[in-house]
Amino acid sequence: MSKEKKQSFMGGAAILASAVVIVKLIGAVYKLPLNNILGEVGKTYFDTAYLIYNFLNIFATAGLPLAISKLTSQAHAQGRENEKRKIFRTSIWLFFVLGLAGSLLMFFGADQLAAFEENPMAAQAIRALAPAVFCVCLLACMRGYTQGQGNMAPTAVSQVLEALCKVGLGLPLAWYILRMAGSAAEESMADVAAGAIFGVTAGTVLSVCFLVFYLLTHRNRTKSPDVPSSGGSILHQVLAIGIPITLGNSALGIINLIDTKIVMGRLQNALLLSEVEAAALNGQYRMAMDMPNMVASFVYPVTMSLIPFAAAAIAQRDTARADRIISSAFRIIAVLAIPAGVGLSVLSTPIMRLILPTRQEAALAAGPHLQILGFATIFICLMILTNAILQTYGKEKLPILTVIAGGLTKIVMNYILVGNPSVNIHGAPISTLCCYLVIVGLNLFFVWKYSAKKPRYLQLFLKPALASALMGAAVWAVYGFLSRALTGHSAYGVNAIGVLGGILAGVIVYGVLVVALRILRAEDVRSIPHGEKLARLLRLR
User: What is the pLDDT of residues 150-179, one digit of tens each?
Assistant: First the structure.
């Protein structure tokens, strides 16, 4: 790689977080209209394909890129350029094989995979997404390599390109197929979902092209005296670090696949609903689940920066710096995740009505799901962070056990609750919340056990929780006031103004409380652009 200014932990996180903001704004332009196009039934077909795609991606790329990032970070910190190059050359072939195998399985086994999920009509969407598995595997290797050197910019740019392609191709294609279907629109939802998902595949191809160009034009050709490890030794290290992480992440992917199968199966077999009726109910739940997933995606930039920088500190035996990085990550996630979860829960139905203007019945049905999933959002974010911390400590096997414990809780509760006629699909968000509660409870215990400096959880979470509760009250009060004050106007317009006004009030109240209660520290903001000035302005210590 060319000579680059090394990015700090928070600087790297800030770059990725900025990219995530852009990607999510683009994603909102893609997914929110798309949900209105797809409806509940099409949403189930789309998400069924995505669950299978995510599982294959996790299985092929979840732990291995982190292993590459960790090994590259260590070699980079020690100035071993030849070792870095050998890590990349060895790893790229491994990802090539894994990606090719995953794509072939998804393309030729689409019918069988859709049937396994009790959703045969999702086969077309699964097939349309198959080539993306191969591309994402190559992307994961290249992103892990650049992130391991403390350079988050290539990942950020490639993510934005990927999102733009989804909007520019997937959304118009879905709309065109729906328009061509005319009166047979409901019967054509499988084709619409496949068209929408093709934009994802095209986006991954574009991202691969960008990263290949970047690596070719930013090669570091300087000579280095270090003798690299053998390819077999590097492969062994990558697999030794990556496989436990992959198994931990794959466990959740497997559980989600089985979970979807149980939900669809119980709705059809226990409640005697047709596939389309079951897909509609499941689609309402999946629409609500989009919001927690959107919030959780902001946690990944912190974890992607956490692993290489904390690993580098541990490799240099600087445990004090590693502890500071991890404590800072905890504070930032608490400051972001807790108010987001409270806000989603407080404004659950109004938010769903806002983002589904053409599907108001579906929005009203999805609202109660989001009310529960809002609180689950907090624990989803904490799970992502604590998994990364345990992996950084070299305890890669523990997240496997905690995820399995939470996943089994989810599966058992779904089987019981969804099959109960008085609960039915409302059991899905309840089981999701309980699943992540179990995982986070176990993870927090293990992080405390293996940390050199024991984290003070009450100190980390109490102030953000208090500030979030006060914020939630303000949000609800402002929404209620605006809704009553504007009675008589367009119902959708009144709701939209109420939601946006409530969110604005919440941001202001929470921002004031964060400063007043001194929830953040100076070290949490100093590494971001103009962070020193911000720390002085807010009088952070």
Answer: 777 888 888 888 888 888 888 888 888 888
In contact, 310 and 257? CB cutoff 8 Å: no
Residue 64 burial class via C-beta count within 10 angstroms: exposed 0-12, middle 13-18, buried 19 and up? buried
| Contacts by 152-156, CB closer than 8 A, 24 or more apart | 152/7, 152/12, 152/13, 152/15, 152/16, 152/301, 152/304, 152/305, 153/15, 154/210, 154/211, 154/214, 155/16, 155/19, 155/304, 156/15, 156/16, 156/18, 156/19
CA angle, 190 as apex, 366 and 421 as ends, to 5°?
Answer: 40
220/2 Cα distance (integer angstroms)? 5
Euclidean distance between CA atoms 400 and 404, whole angstroms: 6
Neighbours of 121 (CB within 10 A): 20
Structure tokens at 522: 């100076």
Q: Would you state the structure tokens that stand for residue 282, as one six-digit string?
A: 């499941």
CA separation, residue 336 to residues 201, 434, 450, 461, 514 (Å): 31, 21, 25, 11, 11
Q: Residue 440 in contact with residue 386, Cβ under 8 Å? A: yes
- For residue 360, give both structure tokens: 């108001």
| pLDDT on residue 318 | 76
What per-residue confidence (pLDDT) applies to 1? Answer: 41
**Residue reference for tokens 């994961």:** 140
Short-list 144, 156, 155, CA closest to 71: 144
383 pLDDT band, cuts 50/70/90, is: very high
Strand, coil or helix: what is 273? Answer: coil
pLDDT at 205 over 70: yes
What would the pLDDT profile of 85-126 be if each residue is shown by its tens digit? 888 889 899 999 999 999 999 999 999 999 999 888 889 999
Q: What six digits make up the tokens of 304? A: 């992607």
Across 133-152, b (16+ Cβ under 10 Å) vs e yields bbbbbbbbbbbbbbbbbbbb
Cβ 440 vs Cβ 383: under 8 Å = yes
Calculate mean pLDDT across residues 27-37. Answer: 81
User: pTM to 2 decimals?
Assistant: 0.80
Sign of CA dihedral 181, 186, 191, 194: positive
Rounded CA gap, 437 and 429, in Å? 12
Give CA–CA dist 103/133, Å, rounded: 5
The rounded distance, in Å, linking the Cα atoms of 135 and 390 is 28
Amino acid in the structure at residue 21: V
